[in-house]
Amino acid sequence: MIRFEQTFMNFLLQHQEKHGRTYHFLILMDAIVSAGKYIQHYYLTGALKGRLGSAGDVNVQGEEVMQMDQIAHEITLHYLKTSGRVIHAVSEESDGIIEINPEGRYFVYFDPMDGSSNIPHGLPIGFLFGIAKRNLEGPEDGHLRAGKEYIAAGMFVIPTGTFTLGLKEAGTYQFHIDETMNFVRPRRVVLPDDPKTWELSFNAANRHTYDERVQKWIEENESRYAFRYLGALAGDFHRLLNNGGMFMYPAIVNHPNPKKNRPEGKLRLMYEASVVAFISREAGGMAVDETGTPILDIQPKKHHQRTALYVGSKKLVEEIASVLRKSS
Ligand code: AHG
Ligand code: MN
Ligand code: MN
User: Fold this and answer.
1) N or C of the chain: less Cβ packing under 10 Å?
2) 247: exposed, middle or buried (Cβ count in 10 Å: 0-12, 13-18, 19+)
3) pTM for the whole structure
4) Residue after which a domain boundary falls, among 189, 204, 219
5) Of ligand 1's atoms, which has the minimum distance to the CA of residue 113?
6) 114 Cα to the center of ligand 2, angstroms
7) 172 and 43 share a domain?
């Protein structure tokens, strides 16, 4: 017996119909999923084809290797352009704002390949994106949108074939890629309440460089939870969504070499932190920065702005937020 699965597009069509939404978003999502699949394919065969080396290397076909993140950027831009629905895009791989179509309806903020230290090993990386809508009533006032204004945000964990999408006020859903390269089997994701499965995820090598209050919280709480760290936000966050707990990338403020401090945090607000914060909110969780401010409330001042990030189960994030809000 063949087991037929509901496809992502069918799920989305029904969703749009149920909420009385336009077809424009469908066209945009089709473009993003096409990019996700293309990047997946390119990465999956990357080791075999010698594509995972550094830029300037020569691969087995005698072609000069282009950096994987640059390839993923170009793949994504191609599909965003052909959708005709994007006014501006912001990519981690491009310094400026990318103007695409003045008639477009959406802003797309994306990191085409996140977790670069995993690339030479062919281990999981992420393709993260957030979508906001332009001001349709009057002249557009800029592309810098806070996460709370996103209408959707998602991530592909490549090459594992999983795709997660948060839809504004409609929940977070996960899909798996099938034999025909369709994403199928929508499953609503809700962060589990039971702390038994919760995990903590942070770069443990950095722990003594965190603010003293964060170090103290870790010392007092770490033994209650399992610890996992892959080094690619999408992969680490994917585990968390299913098991619960907290991923954090705190500010680095006590590095023995003060030049290596990162008081503003490492991760990027618009296409990393806000994406997982949005997905997490739609799954019942929350996210804050180093001052305990909700990530989704932060109004970006520049498109590559960084932030510290604490994201995951509401109870845990609230706990650390109350520590962060108290002055040291
Ligand atoms: P990049 O955008 O440079 O690939 O950074 C990856 C991010 C994120 O995916 C990951 O969670 C974090 O940086 C890992 O950083 P560390 O190597 O400092 O732990
Ligand atoms: Mn990144
Ligand atoms: Mn990147």
Assistant:
1) N
2) buried
3) 0.95
4) 189
5) 4
6) 4
7) yes
